[in-house]
């Protein structure tokens, strides 16, 4: 398959199967006008590969669509969004559940009750220490979740901009194809 054919296929979008002498079948993935060539070793070994028919497109799993874009989050933001000692938070892959994204109700603080100094015994100080530690853990967990949501939102905004541009390009291309088709039909009749 020549470069021109690959480019034409890239304009149409989809999959290309190319056979080169001594190389075998290669799969070329076109995403957003960018090509990725898969070597024969990464292709399934179940017989010859046939291209997908253009007339009957198969349904596409939205999660399986690869969107190529330049997104390099600040390492400091990733560090603030990751639990120390665990895997680094990846905003490209992480999915928040509906429950995690629900707004939390604002709780009224309970009225502070002053404890007289003569009642501040060992049990009191143990409870105060445990409560302070629990409050610190809660604040840290909330801050971590907020940082993760912020980094994920930045990624999604960037991805959304790329997808909107891709939709605009596809609409422009579709308009061009409709124009070409109408010119052809006016000269030669309907297909």
TrEMBL record:
CDD domains: bZIP_HLF
Domain BZIP stretches: 121-184
Name of the protein this chain belongs to: D site-binding protein
Transmembrane segments: none
Places the protein is found: Nucleus
Originating species: Thamnophis sirtalis
Protein family (similarity comment): Belongs to the bZIP family. PAR subfamily.
GO molecular function, one term: RNA polymerase II cis-regulatory region sequence-specific DNA binding
Main location, first listed in the record: nucleus
Keyword annotations from UniProtKB, A to Z: DNA-binding, Nucleus, Transcription, Transcription regulation
Tree of life domain: Eukaryota
Gene3D superfamilies registered for this protein in UniProt: 1.20.5.170
Any GO CC annotation of this UniProt entry: nucleus
Protein's gene: DBP
């Amino acid at each position: 398959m020549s470069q021109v054919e690959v480019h034409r296929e890239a304009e149409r979008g989809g999959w290309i199967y190319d056979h080169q002498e001594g190389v075998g079948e290669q799969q070329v993935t076109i995403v957003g006008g960018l090509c990725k060539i898969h070597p024969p070793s990464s292709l399934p070994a179940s017989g010859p590969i046939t291209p997908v028919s253009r007339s009957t497109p198969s349904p596409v799993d939205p999660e399986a669509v690869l969107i190529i874009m330049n997104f390099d989050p600040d390492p400091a933001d990733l560090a603030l969004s990751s639990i120390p000692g665990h895997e680094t938070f990846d905003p490209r892959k992480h999915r928040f559940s509906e429950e995690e994204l629900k707004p939390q109700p604002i709780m009224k603080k309970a009225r502070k009750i002053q404890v007289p100094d003569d009642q501040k015994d060992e049990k009191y100080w143990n409870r105060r220490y445990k409560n302070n530690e629990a409050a610190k853990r809660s604040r840290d967990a909330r801050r971590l979740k907020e940082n993760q949501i912020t980094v994920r939102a930045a990624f999604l905004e960037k991805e959304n901009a790329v997808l909107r541009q891709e939709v605009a390009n596809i609409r422009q291309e579709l308009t061009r194809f409709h124009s070409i088709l109408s010119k052809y039909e006016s000269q030669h009749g309907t297909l």
